[in-house]
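so im writing up the methods section and need the Alkaline phosphatase record in one place, dumping it here so i stop losing it
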Amino acid sequence: MTVIKKTVLAFSVALLCVGCSDDDASSQGPAELPEAQVSVLGLPQVQRDSHWFKEGQQAVEAARAQAINNTPGAAKNIILFVGDGMGISTVTAARILAGQQRGLSGEEYQLSFERMPFSGLVKTYNTNQQTPDSAGTMTALVTGVKTKAGVLSVAEDVARGDCSASLDRPLTTVIELAEALNKSTGIISTARITHATPAATYAKVPERGWEASAPNGCRDIAAQFVALEAGDGIDVAMGGGRRSFLPAEVTDLEGEKGRRADGRHLIREWQARYGDGVTNAIYVEDSAGFEAVDIASTDKLLGLFHPSHMRYEADRGNDAAGEPSLAEMTATGLKLLQKNTDGYFLMVESGRIDHGHHAGNAYTALTDAVAFAEAIQYAMDNTSAEDTLIIVTADHSHVMTIAGYPTRGNPILGKVVGNDSSGEAETAYALAADGLPYTTLTYANGPGHSADDHGGRRDLTSTDTTAVDYRQDALVPTGSESHAGEDVGVWARGPGAHLVSGTNEQNYLFHVMARAGGLLEY
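--- predicted struct ---
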């Protein structure tokens, strides 16, 4: 018995024999007290009967039972989920919203990935910025190397926009490594697939804005997607961004013209490259085409469901053509990739969490985060932790915060309601020093900044702050709410998941994937 155990036991015995002499305490042993008062090591039964106590014990046992496979290459498959802009405050608020949508108070709920056995924190700064952008952060995730803001999968010593320098300093991505091992690969996003986060997986440019055009000597992002030389190219790609694949003289089914000034029709080029009579390459651009995809006979799948970014989850059904959900795209993508017995790498991005925050609109950001968790749940339910590493993280955070002492279960998108002095009964809206109500969620900056005629805050008494189009109050007036610089979370399950712990640099996650998946020699 260790000294600590002896001390605890002696203290417990002393507690049981208050009022006894020293001789009595040493000779009598534990006193006979009611079980309701004392249990093992002095814990009262009311403590051990608490559902919090029991659930904590169960969680410990579940974590302890998780198998850890430390063998390099044990992960035949890797899925990287990236919630763009999904900082810790977004996860917390989305958790509460999802719980409240299910009739719960919300705080006790867990999003799918929060039930994964391993988690940690990730530092997100770029090499030249304290608060990062998505191009530099995603480059770190998929190449193992941090770089500047605004550049995609090129080294940090390349100046932003320097075409010639970027040609000499490319970085190999995790998709290229997977393709070299004959694995299938896929990218899925609710943003344009030429946007920074998905583009970093395959394109190498010193300017993230080169989606449909680039200076002479360099290729734009969409063109690089079609011409990717690694393996047999990306097998599954779904998201928005159709306009970057179409020439300017072509009008698509949404009535929007293409953005390509070079006259190239990259969708046709993609079909010509992969639809060679041996490979069955399917292109779809609406819900009907998506639902008609025959997985068994499809080898390559390209889905471009919107000229620009796909719709927010809250707006997804508001068009005639229709768009699949992120969970539906994840399901179809996984089914196709799982046909490869050599395994696969899949990146899934919830890109519009970020855009909802930039608009100062927590409703759209959080509903997209909830939809993101549903896509992750599908992957968790339809893969094995024995051979599939799933990592969930964010590229950066946002400046949304949760504050104001709202009562338990108060609508996360609502105005703050406080408790009475006993801490039990709900009272009216809590009022700020200016005598006006305020919301639980606010932004440090953004388009939600407003003032009345006298420079004071707007009166929210009659405002429905849970409405789809409501913009939360912002302290500093800016045209677009900004990213934040604090660490983001990371959660993991499967072979190598135990390496995801502590606080690490963002590029570390690439090395976890590469080691667990046998993509590099370690």
